[in-house]
């Protein structure tokens, strides 16, 4: 059962196995050769460099990536080196490697028990006449104490397996010992080597029992509902959607620091935070790119505090600033604390919706009626319809006018284009990156939560 | 009329499928005319060392330089990653802190994991105050917390859990505002939509499904099920019209919300380990994905090709986020370190 569960959580193991199997293909696989080790000849070996070359050719990847992938195969025990077998690394030279037998493949995920490990160590101990070293010696001692009651079984099994092995040819014996050693290096890695089997906290989905439980009537009812919704949903043509990505990405390319760099320079690269100072949330003179972005979408304009302030000023000249204020108040309600909901709804009603209100907003009668009705049972979404109406009004009407206005054109003209920072002549004279005050220290000037006051300022 | 032989049925099925395949074009075909990207060089610019165990999650502060990170040993650290100074540290009473988030104001952090809870810690520089003393326990699930995120303000938190549900909480009172049921297994990740009238988020889980939810009603609005294994990470495309997902099946996929289907797959035969974490560059042209084979692959979102592979981490990459202004991205790994790349 453990094998099934873990297997589902480790799809990369079966993929690794497919790689290893194709490596052993007689026609398309890695070149095999025999290698002389002391007095025995071991067949079916591959050289590290041949493995890397094969990976490069097969997957069209660089040498670095091939070496990395090959190393992972070795670390997961699918290949083992015959020279220095304790070290599961891939050397891109003539170091010989062999393919692990499927019996010991990591994906079998046998629960490598203490008993099995004890038998393995006992065999080693007997063979080396008590000369186990390092962590293996430590583990052997621990196991001896822990499963002392079964120790006779351990020793008997060990002796039996060694006796059976002696009946094989020396070459086979060597190979089997290496295979087993690799298995244990993966399942009981030496200290300092991270375990490739570790997966993090268990995900209960993989247990068959859980899966059975959830597929009940409710589950299928929900599935049916989802399908029904999907059938009725209005879809946009794929071609329209896909074109939108092309347009969006090309419009934003110059505004993407990773794609196009940023002026005067990327702080992470130059250690100079001027770029951040020049683009601070409430800077006096915004940069040209920033002002341009306000023209990309209404959302971009509103999300930028400087942009929003200028838009508010513009609305003031058109005597419709109460629209934006109303929208802001609704946002505060939607994202505010639960305890403040009632009071906020009241305040918004008094200021913007009540007949004769100081900053009355012009909403169509149907929406107004629905909203006023909903105010009897105030909740944080009660103003959503009205908010959306006003938002669309600003977006379709005021926003396009703003973009065409003299005010906006002036902002574009006055906007700053930072010069590219001069490359420092003496690269070793690195400026230490400036520290900046944590937002948690600043007084609650910007739109933030009530928690900000506790910043110990 | 109703009885067809099996071979006739399969012929009909194949024809229909072929027709659909030719009609439903994918992003890479449409993007053929787009210019290919040139040489791509990104290097580690900062290495943050200080965690004593696997780094599991990280999040950026809106100030574009501070980050919060959490690890297996229960430590949650706030860094100014530009100077690499540690500014705050908290030890949680549980191990495997798999989720952490920075509040929009920059004045608090949220985190949780095997304790099944999400707790909010106000950040204080007062040396006399113990951060743990002001801790607020907000969310309560019946299994591990896998992801958390503040909404537009410090006052609401969205959580995802191994108990198969997501939930929206009021931070001040700890009240459950809305719960989201529908996943058939552990929910592993979530992301809030950047939509202007925004009230949706997407979640991904062990049931191989990515589900889009209406925060108001708690209903699932759309669902996508094309991955072959657990979905570890979901992230919206900057326009909000699509989202990407990273999965244990070693692929990343792009799902379009308006077309209601998968429109791109990012995979390569040589990539066989699961993708643990994905994020877009600011323009949405690049998709950065951290993998369990210790690497980060950079994908051309439009063309579907892999632009670059970044080596450096010595164990699996568990978390990856692009900074708020898109100047860099940060990756956290089981090798105990975080790296900022630019």
From TrEMBL, chain B:
InterPro entries: G-protein_beta_1-5 (IPR016346), WD40/YVTN_repeat-like_dom_sf (IPR015943), WD40_G-protein_beta-like (IPR001632), WD40_PAC1 (IPR020472), WD40_repeat_CS (IPR019775), WD40_repeat_dom_sf (IPR036322), WD40_rpt (IPR001680). The keyword RNA-binding does not apply. SMART domains: WD40. Keywords: Repeat, Transducer, WD repeat. One of its GO terms (biological process) is signal transduction. WD repeats lie at residues 48-80, 138-179, 180-223, 224-265, 277-309, 310-342. Belongs to the WD repeat G protein beta family. Component of a complex composed of RGS9 (isoform RGS9-1), GNB5 and RGS9BP; within this complex, the presence of GNB5 stabilizes both itself and RGS9 and increases RGS9 GTPase-activating protein (GAP) activity. Interacts with RGS7, forming the RGS7-GNB5 complex; within this complex, the presence of GNB5 increases RGS7 GTPase-activating protein (GAP) activity. Interacts with GPR158; promotes the GTPase activator activity of the RGS7-GNB5 complex in absence of glycine, in contrast GTPase activator activity of the RGS7-GNB5 complex is inhibited in presence of glycine. Interacts with RGS6. Enhances GTPase-activating protein (GAP) activity of regulator of G protein signaling (RGS) proteins, such as RGS7 and RGS9, hence involved in the termination of the signaling initiated by the G protein coupled receptors (GPCRs) by accelerating the GTP hydrolysis on the G-alpha subunits, thereby promoting their inactivation. Increases RGS7 GTPase-activating protein (GAP) activity, thereby regulating mood and cognition. Increases RGS9 GTPase-activating protein (GAP) activity, hence contributes to the deactivation of G protein signaling initiated by D(2) dopamine receptors. This is Guanine nucleotide-binding protein subunit beta-5. It comes from Panthera pardus (Leopard). The gene is GNB5.
């Amino acid at each position: 059962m453990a094998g099934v569960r873990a297997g589902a959580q480790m799809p990369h193991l079966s993929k690794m196995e497919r790689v290893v199997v194709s490596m052993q293909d007689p026609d398309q696989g890695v070149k095999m050769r025999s290698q002389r080790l002391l007095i025995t000849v071991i067949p079916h070996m591959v050289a590290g460099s041949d493995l890397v070359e094969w990976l490069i050719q097969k997957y069209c990847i660089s040498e670095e990536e091939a070496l990395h992938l090959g190393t992972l195969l070795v670390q997961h025990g699918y290949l083992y080196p015959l020279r220095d077998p304790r070290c599961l690394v891939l050397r891109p030279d003539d170091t010989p490697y062999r393919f692990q037998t499927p019996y010991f493949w990591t994906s079998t995920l046998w629960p490598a028990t203490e008993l099995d490990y004890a038998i393995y160590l006992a065999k080693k101990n007997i063979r080396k006449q008590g000369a186990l070293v390092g962590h293996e010696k430590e583990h052997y001692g621990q196991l001896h104490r822990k499963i002392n009651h079964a120790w006779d079984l351990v020793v008997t099994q060990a002796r039996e397996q060694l006796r059976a092995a002696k009946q094989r040819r020396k070459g086979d014996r060597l190979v089997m010992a290496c295979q087993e050693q690799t298995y244990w290096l993966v399942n009981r890695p030496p200290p300092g080597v991270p375990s490739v089997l570790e997966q993090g906290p268990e995900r209960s989905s993989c247990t068959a029992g859980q899966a059975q439980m959830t597929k009940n009537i409710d589950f299928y009812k929900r599935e049916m509902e989802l399908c029904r919704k999907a059938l009725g949903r209005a879809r946009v043509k794929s071609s329209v959607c896909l074109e939108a990505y092309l347009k969006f990405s090309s419009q934003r390319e110059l505004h993407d620091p990773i794609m196009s760099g940023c002026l005067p320079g990327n702080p992470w690269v130059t250690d100079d935070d001027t770029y951040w100072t020049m683009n601070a949330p409430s800077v006096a003179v915004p940069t040209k790119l920033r002002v341009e972005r306000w023209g990309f979408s209404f959302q971009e304009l509103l999300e930028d505090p400087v942009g929003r302030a200028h838009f508010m000023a513009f609305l003031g000249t058109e005597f419709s600033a109460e629209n934006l204020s109303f929208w802001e108040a609704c946002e505060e309600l939607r994202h505010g604390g639960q305890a403040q909901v009632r009071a906020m709804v009241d305040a918004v009603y008094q200021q913007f919706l009540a007949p004769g209100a100081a900053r009355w907003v012009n909403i169509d009668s149907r929406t107004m009626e629905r909203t006023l009705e909903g105010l009897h049972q105030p909740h944080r979404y009660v103003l959503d319809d009205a908010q959306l109406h006003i938002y669309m009004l600003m977006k379709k009407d005021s926003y396009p006018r703003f973009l065409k206005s003299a005010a906006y054109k002036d902002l574009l003209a006055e906007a700053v284009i930072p010069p590219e920072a001069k490359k420092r002549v003496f690269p070793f004279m690195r400026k230490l990156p400036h520290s900046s005050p944590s937002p948690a220290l600043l007084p609650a000037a910007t739109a933030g939560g009530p928690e900000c006051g506790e910043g110990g300022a | 009329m109703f009885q067809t032989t099996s071979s006739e049925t399969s012929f009909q099925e194949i024809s229909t499928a072929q027709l659909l395949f030719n009609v439903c074009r994918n992003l890479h075909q449409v993007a053929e005319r787009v210019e290919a990207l040139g040489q791509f060089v990104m290097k580690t610019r900062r290495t943050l060392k200080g965690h004593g165990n696997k780094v599991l999650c990280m999040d950026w502060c809106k100030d574009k330089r501070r980050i919060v990170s959490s690890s297996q040993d229960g430590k949650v650290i706030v860094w100014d990653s530009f100077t690499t100074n540690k500014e705050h540290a908290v030890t949680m009473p549980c191990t495997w802190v798999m989720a952490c988030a920075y509040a929009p104001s920059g004045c608090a952090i949220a985190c949780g994991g095997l304790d099944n809870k999400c707790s909010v810690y106000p950040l204080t520089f007062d040396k006399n105050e113990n951060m743990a003393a002001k801790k607020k326990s907000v969310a309560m699930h019946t299994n591990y917390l896998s992801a958390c995120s503040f909404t537009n303000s410090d006052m609401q938190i969205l959580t995802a859990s191994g108990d198969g549900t997501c939930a929206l909480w009021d931070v001040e009172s700890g009240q459950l505002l809305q719960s989201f049921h529908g996943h058939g297994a552990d929910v592993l990740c979530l992301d809030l939509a950047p939509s202007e009238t925004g009230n949706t988020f997407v979640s991904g889980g062990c049931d191989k499904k990515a589900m889009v939810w209406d925060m108001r009603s708690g209903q699932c609005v759309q669902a996508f099920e094309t991955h072959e294994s657990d979905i570890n990470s979901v992230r919206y495309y900057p326009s909000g019209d699509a989202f990407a997902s990273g999965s244990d099946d070693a692929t990343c996929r792009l799902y379009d919300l308006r077309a209601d289907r998968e429109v791109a797959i990012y995979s390569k035969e040589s990539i066989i380990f699961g993708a643990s974490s994905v994020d877009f560059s600011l323009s949405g042209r690049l998709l950065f994905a951290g993998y369990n084979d210790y690497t980060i692959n950079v994908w051309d979102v439009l063309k579907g090709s892999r632009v670059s592979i970044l080596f450096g981490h010595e164990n699996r990459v568990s978390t990856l986020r692009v900074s708020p202004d898109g100047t860099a991205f940060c990756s956290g790994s089981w090798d105990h370190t975080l790296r900022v790349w630019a």
